[in-house]
Amino acid sequence: MSPYHIKTIEEYHRILGIGAPEHPLISVINLEEVPAYSGDEAVSVVFDFYMISLKETVSGNVKYKYGQQQYDFDNGMLFFLAPRQVFSFQAEEGFKSKGWMILIHPDFMWGTSLAKTIGQYGFFDYAVNEALFISEKEEQVLVQFITNIEREYRANVDQFSEHIIVSQLESLLSYSERFYQRQFFTRKISNHGLLDRLEKLLDAKFKDIHLAEAGIPTVNDLAAELNISPNYLSNVLKVTTGLSTQQHIHGKVVEKAKEKLSTTGLTVSEIAYGLGFEYTQSFSKLFKSKTGLSPLEFRQSFH
After folding, report:
1. How many CA atoms lie within 13 A of 57 on its CB side?
2. What are phi and psi of 175, to 5 degrees?
3. Would you give the DSSP letter of residue 93?
4. Least confident segment among 76-85, 109-118, 206-215, 259-268
5. Is 266 within 8 Å of 230 (Cβ atoms)?
6. Which of 205, 100, 195, 202 is nearest to 153 (CA)?
7. Nearest alpha-carbon partner for 129 in 242, 199, 223
8. How far apart are CA 276 and CA 287, in angstroms?
9. How far apart are CA 134 and CA 142, in angstroms?
10. For 298, which of 36, 189, 246, 260 is 20 to 30 Å away at the CA?
11. pLDDT by residue (tens digit) across 13-30?
């Protein structure tokens, strides 16, 4: 079944059963004013606008799904959706939540600094089960920005309104990024579990006899097999190890290349092909950038 395409913020207001938005391109919704959910079937939607949602369950149960990820929504969380992302949920009859939802159409930000920088916030590409779980103190900080935005949103619009709202949104996103960094550090056990899974997956990939045909695994390939989004994987690794996912992949390539150069008589071209490279020059360039030696120089150092 194809996702339901919601093109305008006004349309989404009608679906939620609340009054029309104060502005066609932005809305701030107090979720306590949204009627209890009246359906029980799974629903998938695609928005043409951004969503920032700070939610906590009041009654009933709901499951959210983003891509192939599913999250049992029991506690408070903050999550972000970018336009054209598929978002699915299934709630019990009478489900109710509290919190806030901000909806922003890209046209609202046109010509502003945020239009240029919003794509840099990787958490808009995270899955729902990679939501930001915030402390009570952190929630107070974020709610202050949300209520500032709501106050300006409901006031009479003038030439200063857009600038003030965008400024508050930028602060909200900056603090969210800070709190995500805190979450990466405080979830060290789960993050190290992720590292272990990544290493096992890379080991398996580079033992595959079909690697030459399949090519070097990509960040997207690994993220899909680990059931997390590419940005979240890279950000966790960056905070935990200082290296990105791409750097981990390259490290595994060089590790395997060193092994073959030092223990086999395969030519550099054969090794490059066996590791999934189409061109020997690309392999040699990567190897030298990581070791300071060409593959042949590395081999000669063992003789």
Report:
1. 14
2. -65, -35
3. T
4. 206-215
5. no
6. 100
7. 223
8. 14
9. 9
10. 246
11. 998 889 999 899 999 999
Side chain identity, residue 271: I
C-alpha separations of 245 from 23, 31, 132, 241 in Å: 41, 37, 21, 10
Tokens of 153: 């949103």
- Lowest pLDDT segment from 48-52, 66-70, 78-82, 248-252: 66-70
Nearest to 18 by CA among 7, 33, 38, 4: 33
Strand order in the sheet with 62-66: 4-6, 43-47, 86-91, 62-66, 69-72
Of 25, 43, 16, 133, residue with least CA distance to 79? 133
Residue 105 and residue 82: Cα distance in Å, rounded? 10
Alpha helices in 17-129 (DSSP H): 113-117
Instruction: Give me the numbers of helices (H) and strands (E) for the chain, helices first please.
Output: 12, 9
* E-assigned strand segments in 73-225: 77-81, 86-91, 96-104
pLDDT value at residue 39: 64
Tokens of 297: 């120089």
Q: What are 161's two structure tokens?
A: 């309104």
User: Which tokens sit at 219?
Assistant: 């960040």
The span from the CA of 69 to the CA of 66, in Å, is 5
Element at 231 (helix H, strand E): helix 230-241
The two three-digit tokens of residue 11, written as one number: 């349309």
CA–CA separation, 137 and 80 (whole Å): 20
Lookup: tokens for 257 = 């290349």
What tens digit of pLDDT does each residue of 89-138 get?
766 666 667 889 999 999 999 889 899 899 888 777 665 556 777 778 88
pLDDT at position 175 over 60: yes
